[in-house]
């Protein structure tokens, strides 16, 4: 299915998900001798049942949402809009009876323990910036990796702020400024002294010490796992990029912040999404 005409209209991550999800559907249709562009609600039900045996409910729902969007955007009939589609998803949830696994929260107390094992090497300095930036900004991995030194701005009264130029919930790039602590400013400036105050704030560092122009989102999970092991933290699971958002949200909740403010800080578009992140760790 053509998708190039959607370039620029959606975030790159969204388009990648569309392509990957439709490819899975395409392969399944080929294996079952089904026309992918003329699939019926019955076909979709069979696809959901097949995917549910291999994937989480969240992944299956995302794939159906991607398929629905692509078909509509290309003016094809959308089988997921029929009652059979929603019933197939409901049936999948009841049969699997599972709650989407929540990220282990990286709260302020864990943040301090991770910072303590970073050290002052080039990688350690970068990791300190990553930890403080992730916890304070509550941004997604791709957004953390997109911050540039020029995004650190001075506000009228001398306060410092970071400009988030794009985000998952800001598809048009209107941008957003959010204040940052002195500790984060010092960390960013300290990192800049070692790698140069230009380009991306977070950079990949090779084994031979050479510095890449950027850090990949996947590397954030890798570094968090390494720091978790170095700090000998015994947690319910492995830390990941989402841990920043969940942990910071819990810290805000503990400090008395309202759900509305937590949603604003974390960039959640709905209270249902924010509540999903919080309810697995604390009754609210």
Automatic annotation (TrEMBL):
Organism superkingdom: Bacteria
Keywords: DNA integration, DNA recombination, DNA-binding
Protein name stated in the entry: Phage integrase family protein
InterPro entries on file: CB, DNA_brk_join_enz, Integrase-like_cat_sf, Integrase_catalytic, Integrase_recombinase_N, Integrase_SAM-like_N, Phage_Integrase-like_Recomb
GO molecular function, one term: DNA binding
Pfam families the record matches: Phage_int_SAM_1, Phage_integrase
Sequence ranges assigned to domain Core-binding (CB) in this UniProt record: 1-75
Annotated GO biological process: DNA integration; DNA recombination
Native organism: Luminiphilus syltensis NOR5-1B
Limits of the Tyr recombinase domain: 101-284
